[in-house]
Amino acid sequence: MTKIRAAITAVGHWVPEERLTNGDFERMVDTTDEWIRTRTGIVERRILRNGATSDLAANAILETLKNRGIPPSEIDLIIVATVTPDMFFPSTACLVQERIGAKNAWGFDLSAACSGFPFALVTGAQFIESGTCKKVVVVGADKMSSITDYTERNNSILFGDAGGAVLLEPSADSSSGIIDHILHCDGSGEKALHMRGGGSLNPPTHETVDKKMHFIFQDGKTVFKAAVVGMADVSAEIMERNHLGGKDVDWLVPHQANLRIIDATAQRMGLDGSKVMINIDRYGNTTAATIPLCLSEWWQSGKLRKGQTIVMASFGAGYTWGAVLMKWTAEDAR
Ligand code: COA
User: Fold this and answer.
1) Residues acting as catalytic residues
2) Which of 175, 196, 220 delimits the end of a domain?
3) For residue 188, what are the CA distances in angstroms to 113, 192, 221?
4) Same domain, residue pair 119 and 189
């Protein structure tokens, strides 16, 4: 029997209009445009002033469905990858389901921080491959500005808000769609990257607010060292075990946390810089949205074409990290 593969048949994204530039940060904290550009590659990010993660997700999904030409009622399952849900419950997936009128869908949120999109994509693919669902929407959306402390300079300059989505459908072509994945987590990374306030360990109190426990904490140097090794290793491993060299891969779609981490990964994969999707300069780190945001922009501009071989790679809080190998299946943008 032919194995059913899960294939991406449409992609879309949504970002808010408002920009927060390096120049703005020069006025807010003790930093410079030069430091931010050279240490991270970031020039500006988008900020959602009014609204929540469900707005980012819903708009990205509607764009995706428009690109596929189908109504929300055809969706079977919605998976929202996020660390900034609108609220603890109900899930952002439920809020999005209602908002877009996906009356036949069930859904849930998935928490894997910057690896949220690959984790959710692989999860969604299982429902397609098992024959349980015919149309699964996977959306990565984060309003990082809601958990960012804009009075300090170490982390505030890194993050932005965005949503990106894909539609997964079955494909009988065994050489297309999602071909392989490697996913990892290592909870010892919690010490270096976390937001400890607000959950059952530290329910919100005046003290947790005063101690800034509802903001992202990151020991940047420690995370940097782990990310550089983790993302490069897993990308090289997925290529090796599928007998691929640099010339066989059309695009690396890396999580956009730091340009130096991306460069190190591409180098390890033997990839020319022209084959790496990079938009960190315009959006910063949008956590679960970075990868689908890249896919959508590259598809829209006609650079990402049907039949191309893609490796997506991520590293984030947990630690969580992984790589997904796929052949791009969406029809080319018109
Ligand atoms: N502007 C100016 N100086 C800054 C600054 C800023 N915005 N932020 C930090 N600095 C200073 C530090 O205080 C430090 O000064 P010191 O040497 O006098 O102590 C110096 O710059 C170097 O800081 P450091 O933290 O070592 O910088 P870095 O080169 O490691 O870059 C990050 C910091 C956060 C950009 C980098 O560590 C990083 O990208 N980490 C990984 C992020 C990641 O992948 N996260 C995973 C997913 S979220």
Assistant:
1) 114, 255, 285
2) 175
3) 15, 8, 16
4) no
Residue range 33-64, pLDDT digits in tens: 999 999 999 999 999 999 999 999 999 999 99
Distance CA 5, CA 134 (A): 11
- The SS3 of residue 172 is coil
Number of domains into which the chain is organized: 2
- Ligand 1 geometric centre to CA of 219 (Å): 8
Between the CA atoms of 95, 100, 102 and 106, what dihedral angle is there, to the nearest 10 degrees?
A: -20
The CATH number linked to 283 is 3.40.47.10
Q: Using a 6 Å CB cutoff, which residues line ligand 1?
A: 31, 35-36, 39-40, 114, 153-154, 157, 220-221, 223-224, 227, 257-258, 261, 285, 315-316
Domain that holds residue 287: 178-327
Three-class SS state of 333: coil
Residues of the chain with confidence (pLDDT) below 70: 1
Residue nearest to atom 31 of ligand 1 (CA): 39
The predicted pLDDT at position 2 comes to 74
Query: Which of 160, 175, 190 is the last residue before a domain boundary?
Result: 175
Answer whether residue 334 is part of any domain: no
Predicted pLDDT of residue 175: 83
